[in-house]
Amino acid sequence: QAAETPRGADVDGQWTVDLRVNDGDEPYTQPMVLNIAADGVVTGEFYNSAISSGRYGRNRGRSCVEFVTSDGMGDYQHAACLIDGRMVGQSWAEHRRFVLPWVASR
User: Fold this and answer.
1) Residue 19, exposed/middle/buried by CB under 10 A (0-12, 13-18, 19+)?
2) Would you give the distance in Å from CA 76 to the centre of its chain?
3) Cβ neighbourhood burial of 5 (10 Å; 0-12, 13-18, 19+)
4) What's the pLDDT at 20?
5) How many CA atoms lie within 13 Å of 9's alpha carbon, on the beta-carbon side?
6) φ and ψ at 5, to 5 degrees?
7) Model's pTM, two decimal places?
8) What is the pLDDT of residue 1?
9) Bridge partners, residue 44, by sequence
10) 40 and 9 in contact (C-beta within 8 Å)?
11) 94 vs 64: CA distance, rounded Å
């Protein structure tokens, strides 16, 4: 009997997030590390901030994460789903009044 793939294994690990505002801008990347626990809790780090309140979910053929980080001034909410081998996501910072779509690769 084959071993079962751990929950969230397809998104677990290290990613490089492309945070350019426009595709023609100079490259601007930040590392993201996602650790997916067996119960779906997400921990790790993004943009030099520890991940808090993170969850993993899989439905309709997609693996997705949602988590919170902070810059010391306020929280950032992030959501992303694995699509064609890349994480396609967005970050929302209410205190900074912006939403930034982004993509991440291995």
Assistant:
1) middle
2) 12
3) exposed
4) 96
5) 5
6) -70, 130
7) 0.92
8) 59
9) 34
10) no
11) 22
Closest CA to 89 of 75, 76, 103, 99: 103
Q: What would the two tokens of residue 29 be?
A: 């990347």
CA 96 to chain centre: 19
- Cβ atoms of 103 and 87 within 8 Å: the answer is yes
Given a contact cutoff of 8 angstroms between Cβ atoms, the answer to whether 103 and 89 are in contact is yes
DSSP secondary structure code for residue 36 in this structure: E
Local structure of residue 26 (DSSP, 8 states): P
pLDDT tens digits, the chain, 106 residues: what are they? 556 788 999 999 999 999 999 999 999 999 999 999 999 999 999 999 999 999 999 999 999 999 999 999 999 999 999 999 999 999 999 999 999 999 999 9
